[in-house]
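ESCALATION

Customer reports they have been waiting on this structure for their group meeting. Please prioritize. Original submission:
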Amino acid sequence: MKIRDQVGFTIAELLVASAISVIVCAAVAIMTSSVSVNIRVLENAAGIANQGRTNIELISRDIRQASHVLTSYGSYTTADDVLILQVASINATGDVIDPKTLFDVMVYTKDAAYPHTLQRVVYAGSSSYRTSGSATHPGNIKTLYFSWNGVGLGSVADESYVDIVTVRIVTSATVLGVETTSELVTNATLRNR
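Update from on-call: job pushed to the front of the queue and completed.
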């Protein structure tokens, strides 16, 4: 009997190899998809945290420039989620004009029309170079909370004692069914306190 050299694969071997290749390709596709979803969720978390950080820095900067927290101004009243600041007016170069007599007022609250955004309202004094108006800042804000010595500003009996404001912003968004939440807290001291 003559033995031939075997060249190539049998049909059974090809079917087994094809099945293994399909399983490996499917596993790689699933892992790639999972990694892609995780990347999107992490990018969203970073974006949410960055928006919260930008908003808290904006509020903190204005608190540090403020001389007082006001009880009310116009239609606004200081509350746990509303901050009204008396800030010295500035000249064209951004320098304080007269910190004892010339003031602007800044209000921070969640925007009523877009409740997940921060609203900053500026009431510029007659000698100030600040521009009066309202601006909204995105942030997917879930909670905006202002306090002093552990007490919400809405419960403070006399705002003239407030020397440090604690600002707490909780941001939240859902991407691909995953909710991402970020909480930022900072303390800012009022000017000359």
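Sent to customer with the following note: The first helix runs from residue 11 to 65.
Escalation resolved.
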